[in-house]
Amino acid sequence: ETFTQMVPPGTDLKIAYKQATMDDKRFIEQMSFFFTELFGKHEEGIETANKAGFAQGIDYLIEITKVANMEMFNTCLQFWRHFAQSFVRPGRVLRGRNSATERNYYAPQMHRLREFLVTR
Predict the structure, then answer these.
(1) From its phi and psi, is residue 92 left (phi > 0), alpha (psi between -120 and 50) or beta?
(2) CA 112, CA 107: separation in Å to the nearest integer?
(3) pLDDT in tens, 58-72
(4) Is this structure's pTM higher than 0.85?
(5) Among the listed residues 112, 18, 32, 111, the one whose alpha carbon sits nearest the alpha carbon of residue 68
(6) pLDDT, tens digit (0-9, with 9 covering 90-100), for 62-120
(7) Rounded Cα gap, residues 36 and 33, in angstroms
(8) Residue 85: beta bridge partners?
(9) Do the beta carbons of residue 54 and residue 15 sit within 8 Å?
């Protein structure tokens, strides 16, 4: 069974977490740590190898950020700070593209994240 079969894209993880068993809650918590650690340490390599997969992982992290669990929220917030800063680092060029191009690619996801953070 693949990850996307276990947790289909678009799953409302905030609701899923509220209704989850303890084991399922632990699984969602581990998802937050997995994605933030993996992307935090290997963002450029993963993004280069599979940009669509990386973007899908970003979608999952947005949903995880919405879960009412302060430890998970803080973990995700640290990642979002790192991710947002990566767009404004002086001289950052990914695979020949500048940070403005990268910002545009992730704009819809970052907009959804901003909307959530502002209303939280």
Answers:
(1) beta
(2) 9
(3) 999 999 999 999 999
(4) yes
(5) 18
(6) 999 999 999 999 999 999 999 988 877 665 555 455 667 777 888 999 999 999 999 98
(7) 5
(8) none
(9) no
